[in-house]
Amino acid sequence: MTLMPEQRKFLIEERIKKARKSMRSAENVVTSEPGLSARASYDCAFHILVGLFLCDGIRVPATHKGVNERFYEIYVRGEDAIPGGIASILGELETDRNIDTYSSKIEEQLTIEDSEKDLAMAKKFFTVVNALIEERINKLDLGDKQEHAPNEALIKEVLALGLIEHKGKESPPKIYTKTRDLVEYHGKILHVGDVYSVQQIGKISLVVHMHDNLERIPQASEVVKITYRKNEKAAVRPSDRENKRNQEQSR
User: Fold this and answer.
1) Which domains does the chain have, with CATH numbers?
2) Using an 8 Å Cβ cutoff, are 11 and 3 in contact?
3) Torsion angle in degrees (nearest 10) through CA of 221, 227, 230, 232
4) Taking residues 148-168, what's their average pLDDT?
5) pLDDT exceeds cutoff 70 at 209
6) What is the pLDDT of residues 28-82, one digit of tens each?
């Protein structure tokens, strides 16, 4: 599912709220229940990081390990490394969370010193990442008004193809003519022309992919995942969702 700017902003704001709530929870029990506080400190870092993923259009991995690995891949080892000396914080917080959640050894139980250290790290992580989110949201606002303004002539052209039926008072298809970096578009290719292809990404939503921006031209009726990266041709791959659906149907 491709998120539109207003949807993305709402989800980002919800993650920031969850991160702040977790931070307050960690503060409230930092001396009385060190283990519970440590888990809440990790939750604070986790939620604010998910907010950054959403802000940058990055799919959130299904596991905590996956989130940590993605964090290191993009924001620690990648070109856009996060400043502020927070590279190791998420891993350290996850380690203490796992100790409190899974360890039954008395000698490994977390202390007040541990929970206070974790809370301080979570606050530092939150401050740095939240500042990045605010910066990116401001740029997203600018992009919405300028770089990602719809191509009205192209919208009319695609509408004339009649790829999705709508009658009477039904809403016409939503057609997106500008794609975004770090976003994955899943769906069936409904039209392949000389210059662009049209993909259905929702019940009444279409996105136009210019062929010059793609590493290969998809085929009509092909169900694909098209992933845009900065300064690269967009990758066109068979959709993971379609593969999963086919596997389930074959069982």
Assistant:
1) 5-145 (1.20.120.330), 152-250 (2.40.50)
2) yes
3) -50
4) 82
5) yes
6) 999 999 999 999 999 999 999 999 998 888 888 888 888 888 888 888 887 667 7
